[in-house]
Write a structure and sequence with these properties.
By secondary structure, this protein is an all-alpha fold. 67% of the residues lie in helices and 0% in strands. The protein folds into two domains: 178 residues, Orthogonal Bundle (Tetracycline Repressor, domain 2), CATH 1.10.357.140; 141 residues. It is built from 14 helices and no strands.
Length: 342
Amino acid sequence: MAAETEQVHSPALAAPRPKGLARDLLRLARPKQWVKSGFVLIGPMYGLADLARENTSVADWTVVALGAVGAVLAFGFAASAGYVVNDLRDREQDLAHPRKSRRPIAAGRVSISAARVYAGVLAALSLGAVLMVGAGPWGESGDDLSTLPRTLLGLCVLLYAANTLLYSLVFKRAAVLDVVSLAMGFVLRVLGGCAALGIAPSAWLLSCTFFVSMFLALGKRLGERRTLGADAAAARGVQALYTDDFLRMSVVVTGVATLLSYSDYVVAQSETYTYGFNLLWLTILPATYGLLRCIVLIERGVYDDPTELATRDRPFQAACAVFGLLTIALLVGVKLGWLAGA
């Protein structure tokens, strides 16, 4: 009887505490990575000035807001589902990583069966969020256009999920193709945000998104080599196919390409944001500072993930805040007729 009592209360056999399991499931979804869903709002942000000049009604603005939230949630839940699938496949390899070994699946705190169910739930929530997108100002109820934004967003989310799955199965083990796949995930976020709000994405927006995403992905590879050294290849197999020189060169090249792409946009908008001179040029200053600071910190090995840098480094966050506030202020200036393009 005593032996039976001892078995029942054995920590190894006891069910996980609800609070502990909930915390592990939350960690498994990696909510900090949802900051990447901010890319969903880039297209809508630059399209607000045009939409505002169309005398959009309050009801339509409500639908627009719900559509934006739905797009962010759709990609957020889809990304979380992808992370769970990736952790399931890499649970043994993660044990060789000093930080990834503490992930819930690798550490054995979340079972494989529970993780599979959890991935399915997150995927269902993603598709459910797509249904938040309505016609807004682009089509009345019953029109063929009424479901177009929702359909296009759903297609972008499905392509994103397929790209994420292919990354976990194939692309993550192929040099260069791995970072291209990651960059396309950001491009699909931008396309999804534009689709949800009925805004046509411009070539500069897609180019800038692609290059900055390549910069972030390559920066993560370089950061891992700086922090892990010889163990980088053990933690991420594709690292064996890269060299330090190639990664350093690629980070600089994609960083410069990002700034040049954005500069082309600034020049093209000279008539829209002019008040004596092109005020949009001011946004190049915080953009350049933030990008170069990212390179410095990754090269020094302070961070091995640009996403971690974005959530922890105050100067980088300040640069992003200044860039965002300047851009929003100029968009408002156009709407109120203060600038030449109004």
